[in-house]
Amino acid sequence: MISATHLHAMVIHFPIALLMAGFLSEVIAVLFKKEFFKNAAFYLLLLGALGATVAFVSGSLAGEGIEDGPLKAPMELHEDAALFTLLLSIALAFFRVVIFYFKYDRTWTKWASILVFTLLAGSVSLTGYLGGQLVYKHGAGVELALPDFSNQEE
After folding, report:
1. Number of other CB atoms surrounding residue 32 within 10 Å
2. What is the mean pLDDT of the chain?
């Protein structure tokens, strides 16, 4: 059976990749004035924000029940960073949808987008780092199981 911990581990890499690829596309679009990369950044951002929502919900479910103990502080740091990343990705996606819908593409909107996208890429990186620390340093979500040798013939 797939638990919330397993689900979170399966889905989390998609929004990370989508948002980071979107950021790279945004930088290329601004530097080289390529429409393809501008459009790619827009759609990668939308998909990344949607994926971040799924990742946040699955992570919240996976962390349920950890109210105290040695995992409390690192879990709260990761959760706070994840919430900031989620809200920032949704805000930027909304901003970009409004610009697209009203065809209000100005110089200031391009630079505002790249600035917020840069902040978002940093936030994604920090959230991923803190999540990695939870697993690889603190052992969160790791199930230790010894092999069952009771059915072996002697």
Report:
1. 9
2. 92
Report the distance separating Cα 81 and Cα 78, nearest Å.
5
Task: Say if residues 19 and 56 touch (Cβ distance below 8 Å).
Answer: no
What sign results for the dihedral spanned by CA atoms 108, 109, 113, 116? positive
Phi, psi dihedrals of residue 133, rounded to the nearest 5° = -60, -40
CA–CA dist 11, 42 (Å, integer): 21
- For residue 141, the model assigns a pLDDT of 78
Distance from chain centroid for Cα 118: 14
Tokens of 132: 């990695």
Note whether 120 and 23 are within 8 A (CB): yes
One-letter amino acid for residue 27 of the chain: V
Q: Around Cβ 101, how many Cβ atoms within 10 Å?
A: 8
- Residue 62 · residue 3 · CB < 8 Å: yes
Is the alpha carbon torsion for 55, 57, 58, 62 positive or negative? Answer: positive
